[in-house]
Design brief:
The radius of gyration is 15 Å and the shape is globular. The protein contains seven helices and four strands; from the N terminus they run βααβααααβαβ. The protein folds into two domains: 66 residues, no CATH class; 54 residues, no CATH class. The protein is an alpha/beta fold. The two termini are 14 Å apart. The longest helix is centred in the middle third of the chain and has 16 residues.
Length: 138
């Protein structure tokens, strides 16, 4: 099964110096490495944009851009955006604040029967309302 990887996990692996990772974060990076080696890690364009944003050094930006080019963006359809809006409406109706990016990730993962790999605790709240699966470190 493919795994849609959220910005939080990619960022640990690609933007944070490895020497600054704690034991739990190292396990997350190791899991992402395994998923990449198994060709199971997936990305959407908005996650790519988040990862490349706020990088001050042109050289660092270019290095990360080249690394991310190895991962093609999942093609999004109008139905993905509609499903994201529906998911956001469901969560808000239950008192859960959402971000548009998170709802798009949930919609894409659900429609493709993928799990979501994230360190963001909001996804646990979304899972209580939406029919999404969360990937756990093995």
């Amino acid at each position: 099964m493919s795994i849609l990887v959220d910005t939080s996990v990619w960022s640990l692996a690609l933007r944070r110096p490895q020497r600054r990772l704690n034991v739990g974060e190292r396990a997350l990076v190791s899991e992402l490495t395994d998923l990449v080696q198994q060709s199971r890690a997936r990305i959407v364009g908005v996650v790519r944009q988040e990862l490349l944003s706020e990088i001050r050094e042109a050289g660092q930006f270019e290095k990360l851009r080249i690394i991310l080019r190895a991962f093609p963006d999942e093609e999004l359809r109008p139905e993905d955006y509609e499903a994201a809006a529906i998911a956001g409406n469901k969560c808000r109706a239950r008192g859960i604040a959402v971000s548009f990016v998170d709802m798009l990730i949930c919609a894409v993962a659900k429609s493709r029967d993928w799990a979501i790999f994230s360190t963001d605790p909001d996804f646990k709240r979304y899972a209580g309302v939406l029919d999404i699966r969360l990937h756990r470190v093995r």
